Amino acid sequence: MSPFTLIYLREVRVRLRDWRFWVGLLALPLVGGALFALPGLLRRGPQPLTVFVVGDSTLAHASVPEVTFQLIPFSAADSFKAHLSPNQALLLYEADSGPTPRLRIFSQEGLSPMQEDALRGLLRQHILTQKAQQLRLSPETLAYLLDPPKISFYEIAHKKESQKGLATIASSLLNSLLYLLIMLTGYATLLSTLEEKSNRLAEYLLIYTSPEQLLMGKVLAMVSLTLLQLSLWAGFGVVALRQLPPEVLVRFGQLASPLVWGEIGGLVLLGVLLYAFLYAAAGATSDSVTELSGLAQTLQWPLVLAFILVFALQADPTNPFLRGLSLFPLTAPLAMPVRLLFGMVPLWERLIALLLLGLTIGLSWILAARIYRGALLLYGQKLSWRAIWHLIRR
Q: How many Å apart are CA 6 and CA 354, to the nearest integer?
């Protein structure tokens, strides 16, 4: 068995035995499952809202299980207002305030958003019904007048209906997941290198293999484990999507073609490979987790900035700044997948992004190998930028 294969298998075995790997692997599915299940577990049954009404006796007939209206005299309004309890509110109905009555609603500590929405919908429907009766309009005529137009936008180039709202939600989730995936893989590579360096295991490994083989075996092992992590997360995502209504599932299926999803997966793997090489080099130039070199501290900033800027600019996929982020190799793994979901990326931009990313990975491999060769056996010091530059030039 070749030294490279031994290094690869050893790294995979060590990571699989490390509890931190399993925490990172299972944290997202467990937290996501808890978020799905928690509302149902905490639900204590419906909490009806009681609204005391001053000024409109007809509202008593508009009660529903979620909201109950009770008419009280105007003289008792101040007393009720001072002694309101949770899930109670006071409504002052001022019919003489103009063509549309003015409604003022008081509660002790504020209503929940769901209660406000339910109450707002009931009151709006009640006022519209009153106006329809005054104008002698039938319920069918009123429904006809209030029925909004059904407007759809179609993208001729992609032969499908535009789904910008759904694409925005999906791109936000994708941006967060890719950021976590790349950062977790990078830091795992950094910690693995630091462990081998601090306990001097690297000295024994370098007896049987070269620094380049040690680096490549470690990085490919990390990428393989990332594929395992990505597969588990994708499986959890499929299970979560199956809980959605069928019409939403159909729209998700139309969001992007299998070819686009394959391209996104390729960008993710290339991004993981790039940052694994860079973080491996950063680990070799550091002394410990608390004594990181300038390279290790700098690597996180391109990802952090890309994560923030993609969130801010994803509503406008044609923004020149977002286009620049999708072409720059250190930010392309986060920015380009978001643009691909919106279907607004010319073929030449996609090819250039892949080409630049591939060239950067090759360059990072060369730089990381040189740093690994010169810095892996340097103990008790974190290298300065000048020392790192000297290792690269050697």
A: 31
